[in-house]
Amino acid sequence: MATFHPTLWGDYFLTHQPQSSGQQPQMRERMEVLLEQLVSLRFYLLRKNRYDVSSDVFNKFQDREGDFFESDTNSLLSLYSAAHMRTKGEQVLDKAIYFTKKHLLGALVHLESPFVEEVSSALLTPPFRRVRILEARSYIPCYEKEATRNEAILELAKLNFNILQLHFCEELKEVTLWWQKLKVGPNLSFIRDRIVETYFWINGTSYNRKYSYSRIIATKITAFMTIIDDILDTYGSTEESMQLAEAINRWDEGAVDVLPEYMKDIYLYLLETFHSFEEHLGPEKSYRVVYLKESAISVNVDIFHEKSYSLFKKLVQAYTAELKWRDEKYVPKKISEHLEVSTISIGTAVVACAFFVGMDDINAETFNWLSSETKLLKSFAIFVRLTNDMASTEREQQGVHCASTIQSYMKEHETTKYDACEKIKELIENSWNDILKHYLELIDQPMVVPQIILDLSRTVDNMYKHTDAYTNSETIKDTIRMLFVDPME
Q: Which Pfam families does the UniProt record give (predicted)?
């Protein structure tokens, strides 16, 4: 006869009592918290990868008065990060930012390391707004402190960064040699000697190794923009500045005769540098330099006397327009009037085009798109101009300088400088939200096109967050050292 062991459960289920009604709301609240965190993470990742999902999913986490439910700090941080993927007019995300920021600030005193550093960093710069290479470099030592870290992944991350760093240093060597050939240091001491900082800025936009030549081109073009800006803005007389503008508009070696002596080498080196781009790209791709130098663009500003300019020529014409403002002590009556010129003089279209010139996955359609007044480029230019003015206006207004957008806003609205600055900050946020909106909507260009525009915006935010770090580069010296000098141990 078979024998079987007795029941394993006995009378367990006879004595089982269901959870009390008091525990059920706690479970529901915990489920809501976890669900909110999951929704926040998925929303963040989808929008980060250009899936324009609706923000309506966050409505269910609000009560009837429109307030968000209380959550733990992790969930608050997830919601805070997700909400910063907002575009203009998404009120539920505006409310989420206000709610989470208030509670995260209040929670800081109770948090421990390393989580307190993570929250503080997010409050300073939301994750999506950070420069990607700096974020990657900063995260590695944080990951190293985690108890659940994977040693193989950690070692691979350090090795990968060190290899990238060596490659960056080779690029820095090339652009530094190019810069020294111009002998900016001893001969042109009035110019900001910032070639390393320029490369740092450009590297923050795209650090992918396959875009190495794009970084070289963009660094050289940005360096020339700095030279021309410093000549027209701080050193050259109005007459000399107009002579430089004339020479650039002519774009031939014969135009050197109209220039003062100190400008001649700069001008010839500008022509030589553009020619080197054409030679490097070869006959099949050299047409791209034409878009940077000679593509026709409509200009609807009365102060320009011709109907079309190349991107680079158009930039210089905007510089000379601002010179006229300066000499006549003219303050544009409206900020919109100011932006018609100053969104050109800030040079965003030129830098973006410089990036695309050196990329293999770009075609003529992209340059035609770049030559038109697209919403993404317009929002990008406004963001950069306003951000720049907020950081540099104090320094610039101490000398002889044209009025900034802040002075125009003060004049238009008859308000104080403080109120004007507060409004400019609001306009900066609006333009950032517009950048994100158009970044999500742009589907007829290669992915790298909107990505470069977005990443350029991130680097601008980083460079001008507290001061004009490009001009006052001591403020970013340690960051540059971390990225290009100190290897990861």
A: Terpene_synth (PF01397), Terpene_synth_C (PF03936)
CA 281 to CA 283: how far, in whole Å?
Answer: 7
Q: Which domain holds residue 51?
A: 31-129
Q: How far apart are CA 433 and CA 426, in angstroms?
A: 11
Q: What is the three-class DSSP state of 68?
A: strand
Tokens of 445: 């260009």
Spans in the chain with pLDDT lower than 50: 21-22, 295-309
Residue 294 is predicted with a pLDDT of 61
Q: Please check whether residue 31 is in contact with residue 71, taking contact to mean a CB–CB distance below 8 angstroms.
A: no
CA dist., res. 340 & res. 302, Å (int): 10
CATH number of the domain within which 117 lies: 1.50.10.130
Q: What is the pLDDT of residue 394?
A: 73
Residue 210 per-residue DSSP state: G
| Residues 62/68, Cβ–Cβ less than 8 Å | yes
For the chain, the domain total comes to 2
Tokens 């990742």 found at: 45
pTM of the model as a whole: 0.89
Closest CA to 220 of 312, 320, 321, 318: 312
Q: Is residue 158 part of a domain?
A: yes
Distances (CA, A) of 472 to 87, 139, 486: 32, 26, 22
Which CATH number do you get for residue 252? 1.10.600.10
Three-state secondary-structure class, residue 70 = coil
Q: Please report the pLDDT score of residue 186 as a whole number.
A: 60
> Which phi and psi angles does 275 have, rounded to 5°?
-65, -35
* Total residues found in the chain within this entry: 489
Claim to verify: residue 249 and residue 317 sit in the same structural domain: yes
Q: Are 272 and 351 in contact (CB under 8 A)?
A: no
User: Residue 300 has what pLDDT?
Assistant: 35
Q: Phi and psi of 301, rounded to 5°?
A: -125, 130
Q: Does 266 share its domain with 345? A: yes
Residues 402 and 283 in one domain: yes
Domain assignment of residue 100, yes or no = yes
